Each structure stands twice: as C-alpha cells, then as structure tokens.
C-alpha cells in the first residue's frame, strides 16, 4: 500500500472548526495556539461575538474563522451547534475523509482532540446544572464523535509508523493519552488509585449490544472500580460480569489483553473514593467466600442492589460511602426501544438505567487517561454498526429474533447443566445460574447473526483499506448492511413462495425446478408479520 491516507480534513475546514470554536473562548487561547487573536480596547459586552483572525494555513487548524462566545447565556445556541455537528459526523464518508497525510503532525492532532474533549467535558456541567436533557444528550454524543475521530487519527498514525501495540494502559500516544494534570509514572504507565472507575469496551457483539441499547448509545460497555489494599498495597478490581456475577480480582487480570479501549476516571475526593472502593470490595468478597457471587442484574435495576450489573458496582459504592450525597450518574441513559418483545426476553423492565457512557459527563470525576488497542477498536466499529442496524430494523421494520431447533436445544441443555450438581462447575465461569432461558436464546441468535453480518463488513472494509488506505465510515457500513438486508429479505420471500408452492415435491415432468438460494439470516431475524 502506497501512502496512508487521512481522515478529517473536511470536518476541520468548517463544521468541526466553527462548531467547536464557538464553544469556549478560552479553548482557542489555552489549548489551541493557532494564531493571534484580535485585541480589543474594551471588554466585550455580554452576548457579543469576538472575531478571531484566520488560523495559519495548515489542515490541523480547527478554526479558520472562529467566533468566541462572551456570555454563558449562549449555551442553548451551542446546544444547537452540538446537534448540527453530530448530524454531520454521522454522515461522513471515506471519500470525504480521504486526503494525503503528507507530513502532517498527526500526534499533535490527537493530543488537541483529547484536550478538547477534556474542555468540552467540563462545559457539560452547564447543561447538567440546567437539567437540559436535550443538550446533555447532544454533548455526550459529541464527545463520542470526537473520540471516534481520535480513533481514525490514531489508527492512521500507527499504520503509517508500523507501531507495535503495547499492553493495557501502557505506551505513549497514539495508544495512551494522559490528562496533563495527572503525570505518568517513571515507567510511563498510569498509576491507578483506590476508587478509580475503569470504563472499558470489548470487541464482540455482546459489548455492542450493551453499549447501543441505551439512548444515547456509547462506546463503552463495562465499568469496574479499583480497590487498593492499604496494608499490602495490592490493587484489585471489583466488577460484575454477565457470566459470573460480581467478583474481586487482582488488577493484573483486568490488564490482560482483551479490551478495545479503557478510560480511567478519578473522583476529586480521594478519601471518599477509597471508602467507596473498600466498601464494595468487602461486600462482594464476603459473598464470594460463601461459594456464590453476587448475581448479575439482567434487569438493570438501580433502585435495589441484591443483584448487580457492571455500572451498578461503582454507583452503589459511592452512594453508600457518601451516605447518598454522591449520585452516579447525574444523568441516566434511557431505554427507548419500541421492540418490547426483545426487552422482555432480556428481562429489562426499566426505562432509565446507568450506562457507562453516563460517566463521560460526571463532573465530580476527572478523566485521568484513555487507552486504545487500535486493532480491536477497528473491530468495535463493525460490531457497533451491526447492533445499531439490528436495533433500527427492530424499531423501523418490526424485526424479531426467531429461534431454531438447534438454538432451542442448546438453550435447554445449557440451562439444565447449570442446575445439575455434578455438572454445573463445568460451566460456572461461562453461564450464570440466574441467566434465563430466554436470555440464553437471544445471545445464541445474535451470535449467529454476528457470524453472518460481520464477515460482510470485514470484507468490504478490507477492500476499502486495500484500495484507498482508508476504512469505511459508519454511514457506509450501515448502507452495506441495509442493502444486504433488502437482498436477503427478497431471498427469504422467494424461497418461502417456492416452499409453499412445491414443498418437498417439485414437479416431475419437464425441466427440473431448482430451489432458490436460502436466505442468509432472515430465517432467524425477520419482520414479525412474516411467517
């Protein structure tokens, strides 16, 4: 492949630049030293617009004609700009993102994007204090969109330099980005402290299934809290997994390769943070010592804690340690799916819950660092698109998941083994005792869908990389799946018509009747009105 090709220039040239430039006057001066600001003899009156001279001519300049807001009353206008930027980002194609990198300083771009997110994250507090859910949703989505842009820059730079992926929370940019107020250790790593919250993301469909089920959707699917034993100095994570429930494990288990991305968040009160971690570690460990773990909460309830889902672990920890004064999250994600059949089969009965993405605007926590596995991050783009399309097809076209005899048999077999005294230990680490048969069935069907849909995306994405040096964007990947859905639906209808007409008895006279090809996935996932 000749030269690696870039992403982002068209975003910078107007929409991202103008949109982000108007968010905060101090952003330009303190974080993006891109050119002289026009001096004013008198302070600007509230609400006035301050003009900034054009940036120097290079594509890293986010702002060419930026405006700075002089009054916080303009926050609602900023909210509109967030929404406009998000719409634009969702529609970007690889063609509009493809430009020669030449000798552009990509690491500086990545650093500026990361620092920009830190600034925007503090600004989210304005929307939160106003309890403006529309604006909160918009800025959370914007933070995700900028994070995706960082992914593109990081992947492009790593490919350009042929870099080797370091371990979890290790390395330098473009892998590990550290908040300047939290210096690295001497070995370049990030020191984790008691009470830190770790947000992470796997790269398979179950992680995407969790990340995309809420509104707005996020890029993280799992949350854990760090506990550091004061006597021994040993660090642990306390976390709840679907397969095994809540457990306390050495931090070394968490830092093994597996996650696509990890973000470290730290509460401003270190004493409270340690108390929260200690409480949760002791609670979970005490139950595990009885031979069973705290069960995983498939219903995602936050009002009671006899069962725990992943984000509920740090939430309850800080709630108890602070005697209710620290509420995590300040703003909850919503579950707005129209497909009630799907939610019932998963056992979800709530309309609001704590999704890991909610921590992105939690003002009493600082972002310490973010880390990416650049190979796995690319895989999450595909699984995110797949699950987003599956959910869209459910809501827009009334698609439902259909079981098969094989899945049904596997469901009963797995469920029965977990309840058989002599055999249950064989699946203890893979199948929780409180996972219902319907959840096992849903996971089995989605697993089959992943095996059909993801290879299609992989092939198309690899073709784009080979041809242009650029991966496909979400709108292009979504378009590929939508086209495939229409084609496969036609195959299903054609095959169903043939089967209804001939069944197993095609006509014996004349030319043989050839059965049409089987549908690829409509046998297990199709509109509810179809037989």
Task: Give a description of the structure.
The chain has 531 residues and is an alpha+beta fold. The protein has 16 helices and 15 strands. It is 44% helix and 12% strand. The protein has helices at residues 9-13, 15-21, 25-30, 75-90, 94-97, 106-129, 133-161, 205-211, 251-254, 270-288, 312-321, 340-346, 374-397, 405-417, 437-468, 474-502; strands at 5-6, 49-51, 67-69, 99-100, 176-178, 197-201, 222-228, 235-241, 245-250, 261-267, 333-334, 352-353, 365-372, 399-401, 525-527. β8 (235-241) and β9 form a beta hairpin. Strands 5-13-10-6-7-8-9 form a 7-stranded antiparallel β-sheet. It has a two-stranded antiparallel sheet with strand order 1-4. A two-stranded antiparallel ribbon has the order 2-3. The longest helix has 32 residues, at 437-468.
Percent range of helical residues: 40-55%
Q: pLDDT below 50 for ≥5 consecutive residues: which ranges?
A: 1-74
> Which overall shape is indicated by the principal axes computed on the Cα atoms?
globular
The number of distinct helices, counting runs of at least 4 residues, comes to 16
DSSP summary, beta strand count: 15
Strand content is 5-15%
How far the N terminus sits from the C terminus, by CA atoms, comes to 48 Å
Structural class by helix and strand composition: alpha+beta
How would you sum up the major sheet? 7 strands, antiparallel
Please list the strands of the largest sheet in the order they lie side by side: 5-13-10-6-7-8-9
Q: What does the average pLDDT come to? A: 79
Query: What is the gyration radius calculated from CA atoms?
Result: 25 Å
